[in-house]
Amino acid sequence: MADSDNSMTLPFVTRRRVLAGGMFASTALMLEKGALAGNEAAASMPPDPALVLWREWQNAHRLTERLCRRQQRLETRLVESVGFPCVTLRLPEGEDVTVHSIEALNEVLGKEPDRAALRGTAEADFAVHQARWDAVAEETGYTAALRAEREAGERAQDLLEAFSTTPATSLAGVAGKLDAVLREGEAWEGCSEFPWPQIRSALNDLVRIAQQTMPEQFFQGEQQSKLRRRQSGCCFRA
Fold it and tell me: Does residue 4 fall inside a structural domain?
């Protein structure tokens, strides 16, 4: 078919998170280490359930990030190899349109009887391209990588939701909750939009209070600079 002059908006093939670059020291982890260093009795106390949950969430979150990067690399190779499934058709008015889904095709052609033949040909061409995409995706491991990323993401999301019903029994547990909300939320929302500046301010307040009550135990050297980089870092939308 002829090259497209107009293209429909390309839908996302994956539910992708834009991951913030760079590693940073977690506020909750630093609070936990500081509390244990300043109070030997804390080591014998029952673990904070919110902090236990935060550790589980962080492991799931990091796994999701690794799997996301892997499936994105595979997707890039897949697109370079076969291209996103699509079909280009010429409308009766003479306009060329490229669509990337059957739903988009139906929107363009509608249900007019006089376009039935054009619709049938376009659907058949799209099915061929989709089948080729699916076959190569399976062969290259992209399908499995995408499935693994989604499963890990769902696990991290379930743990994140559990924070709302898990009480914290220490400053570290409270910081862990805020840390998880910020790290998850900033992957989707703009830094300057409600409620992220307010949550970040609350976390900073918590850290400041902890510094005042245990001044020698928090954010020494490199840890402090890493925290500053996180506070001033960019936020991204998916």
Answer: no
